[in-house]
Write a structure and sequence with these properties.
2 copies of one chain form a homodimer. Chain A has about 450 residues and is of the alpha+beta class. In chain A, about 35% of the residues lie in helices and about 20% in strands. The model of chain A has no long low-confidence stretch (mean pLDDT about 95).
Chain lengths: ~450, ~450
Amino acid sequence: MSKKSIIKPKPISGFPEWLPEFRIVEQRWMDHIRAVFESYGYCSIETPSVEEIDILTAKGEVDKEIYTLTRLHAGADDDKDARLALHFDQTVPLARYVAMHFNDLVFPFKRYQMQRVWRGERPQLGRMREFYQCDIDVIAVDNLPLSFDAEMPAVIYEVLDGLNIGRVQLRINNRKIMFGLLDALGITDEDAVIQVTRAIDKLEKIGRKEVHNLLKEQKISNDNITKILELVLIKGRAADIAKIKAENAMMQEGIDELSFVLSRLEHLPEHGFIGDLSIMRGLDYYTGTVYETELLDVPEFQGSVCSGGRYDDLAGNYINKHLPGVGISIGLSRLFDVLKQTGHLQAGPRSPADILVVIPSKDQMDTAANTARSLRSRGFKVELYHAAQKLGKQLSYAEKKGIPYVWFPPFEDGQDHEVKNMESGEQSAATPDTWEKS
Amino acid sequence: MSKKSIIKPKPISGFPEWLPEFRIVEQRWMDHIRAVFESYGYCSIETPSVEEIDILTAKGEVDKEIYTLTRLHAGADDDKDARLALHFDQTVPLARYVAMHFNDLVFPFKRYQMQRVWRGERPQLGRMREFYQCDIDVIAVDNLPLSFDAEMPAVIYEVLDGLNIGRVQLRINNRKIMFGLLDALGITDEDAVIQVTRAIDKLEKIGRKEVHNLLKEQKISNDNITKILELVLIKGRAADIAKIKAENAMMQEGIDELSFVLSRLEHLPEHGFIGDLSIMRGLDYYTGTVYETELLDVPEFQGSVCSGGRYDDLAGNYINKHLPGVGISIGLSRLFDVLKQTGHLQAGPRSPADILVVIPSKDQMDTAANTARSLRSRGFKVELYHAAQKLGKQLSYAEKKGIPYVWFPPFEDGQDHEVKNMESGEQSAATPDTWEKS
């Protein structure tokens, strides 16, 4: 063969990939997240990576940067091909899925979805072009009980608490409270309402005075601004929220809903959740309960790890049914990447194996293979070393891969085996049928 | 809000998606496959869904139909964007990964990869545009021990045997045997050798006589054709292969390697593997051991479920290192789709939950929630019904979702609970702290 020219590969900006020792941590995270989702009865769905562009833009232009697909070599059937693009979230695909399979689903439909999504945005810390999202949503026909609004934060608390990333706080609000107040104050113009909620959303970032100025720009009187700001500064538990004086029926409804949701979370640790009337969520999509999540011990993490809320109409663009829902989404890759880059994430081992069975001499190959097989049949993850090489080399391989136990098979079946604990250095006799990790 | 126009979504040809009751089966499959891979010490990697087009085509034009990516709204930084395309397999990404992270990996590098790949081919039964592949490969620097060639079929047998799809047979050959014979017969022209191996590959499909004609076209003498056909008809175990008379050193090497590999598989059931000298695998890429896999009890499944082999040089296009490897790939979605469409696949439940805790009356809401939590803490997957509705409605919900147990909480904490087994209809007293599935 002739000498080849070499094309040295480079990382592609915004498309992360991990070494095995971090991928194994990502896997642990995803296994844990899935286990919690399933423990509440959420079923998995996966949708194709692509949707038709007409479906993605059914609500109007999307503000996300979409990647469209083109086949490199045009074929005769190209004209018949659907115009496809990679999905940019899991909500539009869920809406399309529910509309398309409406007659085959059981409602309330509780689903989780953990897939990659794509956005052609400029990459930076915590913003990628390809990343995993982990979503749960419950969709009902016509009426969705409020108990699901309380289930979301319970699930998410359990998910994030198990990731070993410090204390987590769910911040919960109900948009009806502010909508009710604005209505009572005579602020009913749709655009003004949107501007007010956006201004409130910025409270934490720009402070009370700047929000005051933004509200002033909307020609809201000083008295009314004071009332709005008094309301958004309220934080508390169910009993505190229940005490808020409602100005009208909508505001009362929001207060009742929020205090009900908070009252259903009393089994969580005190720091784990709070009613916080400054949480608005920019999207007009949400109609009642809204969620954000803060990592109390990771100040480097800006913004919300995980957010969502209740919406009135999931799939009105695709089906003539009234489908209210509530959902929440974890930006998994974003969280993982930021914690990794800020030193909050420890690498795992480079191998999933519990045990490396070594082959001290050529005569032991069969015994070693049998030993590996019987340990595997007992549920252990066992790598069999690949050749009768110097023992030091075999031990160093186990060390480099982070395999915690090294197993020495005997010279003949029936004789004593020995196992070395690589962390403590201890070595002791063992039998494959009864051995347990120490 | 004004009345919306509805865009009715349609399935996209070649991009499959499953209802929850089949997705749950696909998940079981993937969990099982992953568990077997890890039980042999293979670590997981995931690569981005895209590669640079220059990387994908480093070996020359690819015969697969590639999907390229374009951002819908061109931005100012578009010129600087890499030219990207979705990967069409996991071998090119593996090669690129190993070359790029060479200094951070421990060799032999044993990795598995279970991701979606994309090919813009015309969809038909068992051929999709988006599908999962499950690959394992071992990559070494300079020398890769033959024991890995024997590990591949052991892993794959265990994987497929656990999927409940009937008996599986691994068919194994070593290309050096035929290359040696051809060399001994004076058939050394590179193109002729390729044509001969391709003709042999067709043996099962077109029969002995047609292969004879194809070899004749290559101007091979009748005597030599007879010798070639005699060889490819050989099937057997290690001892049978060892008896083949070699015409030269290369042929002997192939015989020795194949009989070694077969001898290491004697722990498998008799039907589980066979040396089969007609297996050639079209790709020129393979240099020694090659594998195919047959489903003995699913005649509808055409072709190989799972194939692979040994190659000399994984990443010569990307790095100046000699990296031999051996690998095998399961066409997961293809297998799943064909079995589903031919009625070999049973749907699973529509929910992962083991138990539905019902709420017979409003007063029992707290007790029901506490019961669900304590069952979850014992590892059960538990859905809490969302409202105090008629019991018949709650039971019918469990039935429709395929949830096997329904739990009736008492009117007060401390009183008797009851559990109904939905399959047998039996109902009996139970406590959340001690209950086990019957």
